[in-house]
Amino acid sequence: MWHRTISNIYIKPNGFTLHRNPVAQSTDGCRAKIGFYRGRHAWEVIWEGPLGTVAVVGISTRDAPLQCQGYVGLLGSDEQSWGWNLVDNHLLHNGQTQGHYPLLNNCPKYQVGERIRVILDCENSTLSFERSYEFLGVAFRGLPNRKLYPTVSAVYGNTEVSMVYLGPPVDG
Description:
Helix content is 0%, strand content 48%. It has strands spanning 2-3, 9-11, 17-20, 26-32, 40-47, 55-60, 67-69, 81-85, 90-93, 96-100, 115-121, 126-131, 134-141, 149-154, 160-167. A hairpin with a 4-residue loop joins β11 (115-121) and β12 (126-131). The protein starts with a strand and ends in a 5-residue tail after the last strand. The relative contact order is 0.30.
């Protein structure tokens, strides 16, 4: 499902797991091969290694950058990407923090190995997340009418992230 785009990340033979090589002072992203602009779609993301200081899950257009210097929230750093930083529970878009997420009292931080379900609703232009089968609410509204791709960005060396497409989300 991943599209290999830069040398600091390689895709394992299963095609669903990326491995970020240990490269100092670099943030690297990886985008799925297939994007969506119609319908409702869900995919699962599992962070299988340490998060480091920034670990972001979300979506991007083809124009979003996939590599930069330093340890930053690359996914969400411009107008072409939207992400949830699992480390500090902030939403990122257009280089700005868009607030805390999820909007729950004393929300626990993401634990390595927990399943994150990402829900892209192209009909309503929203992006939502679930953690361990609990719906966390809409994270972003007013997404553009463009093809959007599942994307992650990572800073920690030797971390691995798996992504599996699930199809249309099941409501209820």
